[in-house]
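Sample 1 of the test manifest.
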Amino acid sequence: MALIAGVDIGNNTTEVALAEIDGQGAVRFCGQSLVRTIGIKGTMRNVSGIIDALNQALAPLKIPRRDLAMVLLNEATPVIGDVAMETITETVITESAMIGHNPTTPGGMGLATGTTINLDALSEADSAQDFIVLVDAATDFQVAAEMINAATARGVRVRGAIVQLDDGVLIHNRLSQPIPIVDEVRHIERVPMRMPAAIEVAPVGKTIEKLSNPYDIATLFGLSPEETRNIVPIARALTGVRSAVVIKTPQGDIQERRIPAGHLTLIGAEATVEVPVDQGAAAIMDKVDQVAPLREIKAEAGTNVGGMFETVRQVMADLTNQPVSDILVQDIIAVDTLVPQQVLGNLAGEFALGNAVGLAAMVQTQKLPMQMLARKLEEEIQVKVAVSGVEAEMAINGALTTPGTKAPLAILDLGGGSTDASLINEAGQIRSIHLAGAGDMVTMLIDKELGLDDLDLAERIKFYPLAKVETLFHLRHEDGSVQFFDAPMDPRLFGRVVVMGEGGPQPIPLEDTLGRIAEVRRKAKEKVFVQNGLRALSRVAPAGNIRLIEFVALVGGSSLDFEIPTMLADELMEYGVVTGRANIRGSQGPRNAVATGLVLTSPLAREQSYGR
Amino acid sequence: MKISEDMVKGIILEVLQQMKPSSPGPDRPTQAAPLQLREIGPAVVGKDKNEVVIGIPPAFGNTMTQTIIHIPHQEVLREVLAGIEEEGLKARIVRVNKTADVGFIGHEAAKLSGSGIGIGIISRGTSVIHQRDLAPLQNLELFSQSPLVELSTFRAMGKNAAKYAKGENPTPVPVRNDPMARPKYQGLAALLHNKETLLVNRDQPTVELAMA
């Protein structure tokens, strides 16, 4: 009887499987554990985490560590990944041509046109003209309303107002004749005077109709076909807002400008191509497919992506004591995303969604110093330690302990840093691939798209469902179901969108609706995991055809996610593939695959095959 | 020793005089006109979902007419009301006679409010946004350091209270925190508190007020 331990050092977690193997080589599993990996995978710092994991697995059995016959480590795949984002478009307004923003409470409603005029100048204004009046922060709402009323009484035609403070409703409520009012225009001093302007406020729950249509703007300002062509970006930028102002200035313009983000040079086995990052994710991924298999990628210095490549290379070089030039980029994935950006030249602090490209890269080197790690561990615990088996093979051997599976089987390992796939055929041959982009990239996308600037919170939004606290005694879950509580909740949660984490609901400090946050989360997962799942499977599938795979088992931390497995299953259904979360040894869920595989393939075990 | 109102007034004026040279900021008049508020009967629980109730103690706008940093109570109420109106909601004002504690006043206002959201403001400026299901000493937002509650804070307070009443998800009003506010104002705050409590009468019910 020998007690052996399989240890899987992953990017985020270190997992242990304990088993007794008798003289005949029969394996009986008797324990497991899971701890956070300490330090970067494959480095000396891992040792303390491994010892901790072993202790945790042994504790319930009351067996001292020295009774272990052997500890088996996986041949950790020497890949690490990182993510970066490059914003490629920005919106620029010149000469204050438009204000289109969403103050939550504009005043009045309807469409108005007139010449812009200062409130103070209203007393000398003639009555033959229509006016749009500007009210700055120094003017009290009561005073402003009285001045507008006085002007109206004298026959001056005030058709609309632009207000600096959040006073739209207050002024509107005090007017003798209702007019549409756009408020919260922060930089009102930039609005040009004595220029023709149009203003539109939509009723609650609707969006503006006229100023978002180029022909309506042309009608209002009497524009020529040439000029109409030029205001198309304005109309587009105003789509979907509740209130807007358009001012006709001689050179006023709004543009969507491309920000130069440098080139990527993709070096494949046979060809080398250059692709500008600002062409977006689709163009980059096209070129990646073109040059596959990829050997090396170079990015321009001074860009975010260039910086990211340098960092991962440096980290890997430090890790392995190899020169930076020996570290090669193995894979990249690019996804398109939208990030909120302040509009340049804005009048009201408007934000527009700028296009951005998120990139994850993976670098490879010859070998991580696993032997050194094994020796160090052996010294520390005085038990024989061996490095045995390649990670992907071990994972598939572990996955085959899932009830209801048999070879041929493909596994998708959805981790934090990488998405890996391996396939075993009837003959027991294994093919595997590591691709860049997994859970960490999803976290980055959520963080950037919501403008959170808080990776911990983004991580929790990724991992847990959302809910809205409606009263202190009940909340409504994302799916619409209601949960009641006997005791009142923490007042800080009142009215908020919350993440339903393990420690109870946690508020999200955003004014976005639950629907939008959930949408961003789902999109991010789809962009990364669905795309990468298909990419990975087609690389290992016979003849590159996913249809020829029958069974796919999901393993790894991200397959514990509450919606990723469903997304992948839905997608793979189209290929006629049975997809499900693995259940290692019928009890461990998608965890512990590699550690289990290590034990099963140890020299002492009889079952060198793939479980039952 | 019995403290008479005149004594307190005298002490406050004295303290204010001494503080003058060191306190920066605009020179405001030390006396503001009393609030023109009229009692229109006992306060009742509202049925309108679109209202926020503002609770004030007996001395507010009465024997005391400005906050600890000399914002006239007239303007305090005007800004809170404006914040609520801008969000499209209605406001009621009640005078809570039985206590001078900001938490209990806010809670009383919240219990009377059809939306369940109330605001409590005491004379020196300390304020709270409250919800009826909370315990009296809990709060949705608390503005605990009266010297740091400015005119713009009152507008934002009204606005946020209205947003809570609408079931929205407002960002809490940013509250400054000044460690020097305590040593600098503690004495004055204590005196103002004494003055505030003088008019408290446990047996008198909460009354509804109207702007005269």
